[in-house]
Amino acid sequence: MRYGTKDVLKGVDISIAQGEVVTLLGPNGAGKTTTIEILEGFRMRSAGEVTVLGVDPARGDEVWRSRLGVVLQSWRDHGRWKVRELLAHFASYYAPFREPWPVDDLIRTVGLAEHAQQRVSRLSGGQRRRLDVAIGIVGRPELLFLDEPTVGFDPEARREFHDLVHRLADLDTAILLTTHDLDEAEKLADRILILAGGRIIADGSADALSRRVSTEAEVKWSLGGERFVHAASDPTAFVRDLFKQHGDAVTDLEVRRASLEETYMRLVHEIESGAGETTLREFEEAAR
Amino acid sequence: MMRWAPLKIGARRGVIEARHAFTTPEEMAGIVIPSVIAMVVIFFLRGVSIPGTEVSLGSMSLPSMIGMNITFFGMLGIVQALTVEREDGTLLRAKTVPGGMTAYFVGIIVESLIQLLFSLALVLIPGVIVFENVAFDGPGSWLLLLATVIMGVGATAPIGAALGALFSNPKSLALVMLPTMGLVAISGIFYPITALPTWVQAIGQVFPMYWLGLGMRASLLPDAMAAIEIGGSWRHLEMFAVLGAWTVLGLLLAPMLLRRVARRESGSAVAERQQRAMQRVG
Predict the structure, then answer these.
(1) Angle at CA B14, nearest 5°, toward A133 and B270?
(2) From the CA of B81, how many Å to the nearest CA of chain A?
(3) Cα-flanking dihedrals φ and ψ of residue B29, to 5°?
């Protein structure tokens, strides 16, 4: 993909298996939106090859479209429609292609049963998003795109939404999620991709990423009412020594690897400050 | 079945949208109030007769107004729907479902048609009852009315779709609205066009609104009234020629421009438009 003379995306390779949740992270301007829109078939690429569900999105027909679900963040449409009416309407688009999800069942699944007869414009932000998700999955998609799905959710709605995503993955839906919420990414994703500088700079589970980035873990403990912090490259050995030395006197022990947030910040910072190539190589070596 | 499904879904969509408009008080007011105000004015013009005839200005204006309404609901309704619904993401949503774009455009057309028929009945039924000279004079005038309505929708709806596709900003609706209001003044809707300077008459006759008013007057007024029209005739042939030309132009432009709109719709495009809308407000 190219804007003007600058290549925006270079060799971005994403594969998602059935039932897998993949999160795409990256700073603004990294090409996240562009990538997703090319995959959704909403934007033409300038060069390269793209295949989604075995089809080039630029040539995707309605049959291909019926196998995808898309949930975007900028929707505030159909305000006059009632929840159930709108969902039933969108279910009818899929009927010629595949068996849509039974509407009442789906309304219960996304937790909108009480609001089935309410006008869409009266829903709260979180309810509205859940309706968007319901419309996105009413055709039982094989691949679902979720763009910042929980912006504006309260913690409870967020938790419910995360449960819903897990249930969808259990139904063998492949899910590609973008978010700025790293905590959410860590909770939801089987795999995390970080896109920066127009390429994928990291690909792995949150745990694997943090182990690759930080060689040191943070160990905290209390001893005789005093709190200690130590960075250890081999925390297991360090803790073993600690107990050998102080025995039962050690309390409140904590061992922490870098969080996804720290991993992410470090990776993205290095890419943006130009040290990216080295990090990337280290990474590729570690991946082998 | 698969090929026709979007048309069927679109038709259902149009009916549901129309029902929502009819059950939303503000929207209903938007449809009814202008017609009611105009009807009241026209009602008081019952006693004012057009010089040289026995027909009142009110009787003349009523059919003309129906012609005007065809332009309003056929064209402006579609322009408005297209610009507003591109900003709120309705179009983008249509793009994410199979057959969604076709169904969306069919839905808009069906909705406008329903609103048009409603506004037609709203003016026509009381009009025929209250105004002595406004009447159906046999099946011929029914047929002419029907033909004018159909030709009118053909001449205005595709142009509306093309204009709606050109403007992505609901604010630019005014760019379409104001000239249309101007057209009312020079299309002989509320006063015979022959009272205007010839060059203004010429401009008025380029656009469908004049001809739609003329067609409605031909359907509903006594034949003798043709005497005060341009050329002293209802000029059916010219009417069908002008409306037909607009239909052809609209049908050439609209699919092309709508395809362009559909192609360009994406999440980031809608987000950007909403950003701009926020700046307008703030």
Answers:
(1) 45
(2) 12
(3) -60, -40
Q: B282 in a domain, yes or no?
A: no
Q: Looking at the 3D structure of chain B, how many domains does it have?
A: 1
- On whether residue B71 sits in a domain, the answer given is yes
Q: Tell me which residue in B95, B96, B271 faces A74 most closely, judged by beta carbons.
A: B271
Strand partners of residue B22: none
DSSP states along A223-282: ETTEEEEEEESSHHHHHHHHHHHHGGGEEEEEEEPPPHHHHHHHHHHHHHTTTHHHHHHH
| Pick among B93, B260, B264 to test the A interface (most A CBs inside 10 A) | B93
Q: What is the ipTM of this complex?
A: 0.84
- CA B161, chain centre distance (Å): 12
Give A279's pLDDT tier (boundaries 50, 70, 90): low
Q: pLDDT digit string (tens) for B213-225?
A: 999 999 999 888 8
Pairing between strand A6-7 and A2-3? antiparallel
- Distance separating alpha carbons of residues B151 and B155, to the nearest angstrom: 6
φ and ψ of A38, to 5 deg = -65, -40
Tokens at B258, concatenated: 């709508």
Which residues are registered as beta bridge partners of A204?
A: A192
If you ran DSSP here, which 8-state letter would residue B191 be given?
Answer: S
Q: Which of B229, B6, B185 is nearest to B103 (CA)?
A: B6
Residue B115 lies in a domain: yes
Q: Is B90 at the interface with chain A, CB within 8 A? A: yes
Residues of A near B (Cβ–Cβ under 8 Å) read 33, 36-37, 40, 42-43, 62-63, 65-66, 68-70, 72-81, 85, 89-90, 92-97, 135-136, 139, 147
Q: What confidence tens digit (pLDDT) does each residue in A82-102 have?
A: 999 999 999 999 999 999 999
Mean pLDDT, residues A225-244: 88
Instruction: Label residue A6 by pLDDT band (50, 70, 90).
Output: very low
CA-based diameter of chain B, in Å?
Answer: 62
Which pair of tokens denotes residue A208?
């694997």
Q: Please, where are the H alpha helices in B131-235? A: 139-166, 173-186, 198-204, 208-220
Contacts B98 to A, Cβ<8 Å: 62-63, 65-66, 93-94, 96-97, 139
Give the whole-angstrom CA distance, residue B120 versus residue B131. Answer: 16
Which domain does B259 fall in, by range? 5-277
Higher-scoring residue by pLDDT: A6, A77: A77
Residue for token digits 């990256």?
Answer: A26
* Residues A2-207, CATH architecture: 3-Layer(aba) Sandwich (3.40)
**Would you say B215 and B195 are in contact if contact means Cβ atoms under 8 Å apart?**
no
B19 in any annotated domain: yes
R_g of chain A, CA atoms, integer Å: 23
Closest CA to B230 of B194, B203, B202, B186: B194
Element (H, E) at A195: strand A191-196
